[in-house]
Amino acid sequence: MPGTERRQQMATTSAAGHPLPYDTYREAIERETRRFAEVVRGADPARAVPACPDWALADLTRHVGSLQRWFCALLTRRVQEPPRSREVELGMPEDVRELADWVAAGVPEVAAVLRDTDPGAAMWAWGEDQHARFWARRMLHETLVHRVDAERAVGGEPDVDPVLAADGVDEFLVNLPYAGIFAPGVTKLRGDGETLAFRCTGGDGASGGQWRVRLDPDGFRLLPRTSGDTASEPDTVAVHGPAEDLLLLLYGRRSYQEPVFDVSGDVPVLDRWFAHTAF
């Protein structure tokens, strides 16, 4: 298997930026999973999760633990085509009070699978990057966003590392054009050349990150960065805000009308965006 040095060099690339080293994802997944387990441990499993309608904390916990085990199965098998079944041995406890420990108990297996995985190994993925590293990046941001969901559900004030948050914005926008397989509304997102810009602000390591999306009659696409992050024409609408808040905005956990965001331009275009990207 490749050593740490090789893994650190093998990260996906995108039109919007340069994702993080593979080992960063592996280590962050462990931290975020343990944090998630600590949040839900001892909390009322029947407590509603506002970010996930019709879900209680027990449902969210089952989802996180199950998805991580499913991703590990995909990585272990190095699947080369869409799997026909999602059956995998979960070992899920019947007692909802044991779900937090069940999630935490899966961390060593997740860590081992990721350590033993060549991030550059070719394999099927539903998104842009058809390599094993896709699943590590996806697992991190799935876990991170749901950790925030759990903390907010129990009345906490979540914090997200701004560099991880900015990477989450990139991961979301890079893969969104491929999400129609489970979010059909995305396939109906159209326009006449309008552009939307999302830009990170604040005095942290994510400040200055910018992503621009263009809506065309046949769909939408993430635009490549221009020199100096400047566009030849003004954007139709732009949203500026801290990386953590932009991440939660794109995932439907926040509203662009909140004062933390600076919005300029044609707001109805932004409304159209969120109407089609909610899932």
Report on this structure:
A hairpin with a 2-residue loop joins strand 2 and strand 3. Helix content is 42%, strand content 10%. It is globular, with a radius of gyration of 19 Å. It is built from nine helices and five strands, in the order H-H-H-H-H-H-H-E-E-E-E-H-E-H. A five-stranded mixed β-sheet has the order 3-2-1-4-5. It has two domains: 155 residues, Four Helix Bundle (Hemerythrin (Met), subunit A) (Up-down Bundle), CATH 1.20.120.450; 111 residues, Nonspecific Lipid-transfer Protein, Chain A (2-Layer Sandwich). The longest helix has 21 residues.
Give the biggest sheet. 5 strands, mixed
Q: How many β strands by DSSP?
A: 5
Fourth-tier CATH superfamily name of the largest domain: dinb family like domain
- Number of helical segments? 9
Q: Which word captures the global form?
A: globular
CATH class of the largest domain: Mainly Alpha
Strand proportion, as a percent range, falls in: 5-15%
CATH topology title of the largest domain: Four Helix Bundle (Hemerythrin (Met), subunit A)
Mean pLDDT comes to 91
Give the low-pLDDT segments.
Answer: 1-16
At CATH's second level, what is the architecture of the largest domain? Up-down Bundle
> How many domains comprise the coordinates?
2
Q: Classify the oligomer.
A: single chain
Q: How many angstroms does the end-to-end distance come to?
A: 37 Å
Helix content: 40-55%
The succession of helices and strands, N to C, reads HHHHHHHEEEEHEH
